[in-house]
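Ticket #500: bound-state structure for NAP.
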Amino acid sequence: MSTAPKTPSPAAGQRAAPPSFDLVLFGGTGDLAMRKLLPALYRRFADGQVAADARIIGVARATLSREGYQAKAEEACRQFLGDAFLAGTWAGFARHLWYVRLDATTAADYRGLADQLAMRPDVVRIFFLSTAPDLFAAICHELATAGIVTPNSRIMLEKPLGEDSASASRINDTVGAMASERQIYRIDHYLGKETVQNLLALRFGNTLFEPLWRRGHIRHVQVTVAEQLGVESRGDFYDRTGALRDMVQNHLLQLVCILAMEAPATSAADAVRDEKLKVLRALRPMGAAEALVKTVRGQYRAGIVGAGRVEGYLEETGVHAASRTETFVAIKAEVDTWRWAGVPFYLRTGKRLHEHVAEIVITFEQIPHSIFDGPFGSQPPNRLVIRLQPEEFITLRILAKSPGEAMRLKPVDLALDLGESFKARPLEAYERLLGDAIQGNLTLFMRRDEVEAAWNWIDPIRAAWDADDDRPRPYAAGSWGPAAASALIARDGFAWHDEQ
Ligand code: NAP
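RESOLUTION: The complex was predicted; output attached.
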């Protein structure tokens, strides 16, 4: 039995009766499960969105009793939910938690899981693969062999989906051998963010923007995903991956898709995904020479981030002392379509940067002629800022007359604070994505051809870097990255948003 919801509810419209499910959480004791997935499921429960008989079955190699797993999950939820954690609600949620000890590579271990699942053969089954990707193949093989993938089953895959086009295809082939494409939910948690969905609402729910959303009206687009964090405990993983694969191939390109796609006929999953795919296929490919001109790689050195001194990337645990892995990337991308020809998309992401911020900045064209005093072009153009984190808001910079006798124009921001406007708690990305998977809605998940098209654009850039003798450019932790990133955009006469 569920207890009554206690936390503030998300907006109305999420209120369909929740279907029952068995969610098998591979990697159920891992960092992602503890920090994000279980807290997200707790919030679903607190909002009355977990059916009374639903089961969440954590799976890992550690020997744990059901109570032991519940206690571990409680500790994590207390820590990561803060004020949203309520002991009374927890008691109800904990009744949904189960644990099965299982080594993903050992066939015999799947018997216990099969027995658990056999109790409810017809219910929606979700296998969430929150383990290192090198276990995906073994898990898929053993699940299929154990005969526990029913037509009602869904497979959720965490990034990274491969490290290049070939390895992504292998993962997709493996998963595809056990489940059809409509059963596969590839996560890019940026798509679960409320503001990213609001970008769709802004573009396709209003008449105001869409006529201007093109060359001729938009001068350039910037997408920045900046972290203050370093590699934390994941030095070994990160050193094999780098910012291009870790962030650009998935999060940044998905944002470009949402920004640049044509209007889909409906919001149905394949209608949206067809349009996103066209954007990925229209990204101008980069040859080796072009890649070195249109991209900048950086690697952080020791510096000051926030109030504290931090060490450089090469001193991090798990990182090779002579590593050439990039912790920063800036790219000038172009989308070769009638809509976007000539409009640069500047992408930038990195670790140990000055601020923790993710935002999209759309700068419109200058007015064609000024009727006001002052040199033409001296006023800043209209600008739309979509902030994804740490806060979620949208602002539109317009010019207005400043009070007084003289006709002086000053920029002012029209600000849309979604939390304030709707007086409702927005869903966290993983809440949304887990909820959508339970409901069977694939719209915010990546299709196989999208993932592979993204890798096809990334692979030549990677190859150009590998063939180049230059090392990533050093930048001080706490800065905005190497100076070359500013030069990349300054060559076109623009500046990054934080430099304006
Ligand atoms: P993690 O903390 O290392 O957890 C790995 C989990 O897998 C643990 O529960 C571990 O438990 C289990 N595991 C390892 N080997 C196993 C085996 N042979 N059989 C069964 N279970 C096994 O990793 P994570 O940070 O949670 O990341 C999980 C996945 O999500 C990775 O692919 C990662 O790249 C991705 N991801 C993570 C984050 C994040 O913020 N953490 C963000 C985005 C994507 P036992 O050792 O007890 O078996």
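RESOLUTION NOTES: Residues 27-33, 60-62, 102-105, 130-133, 135, 158-160 surround NAP (CB under 6 Å).
TICKET STATUS: resolved
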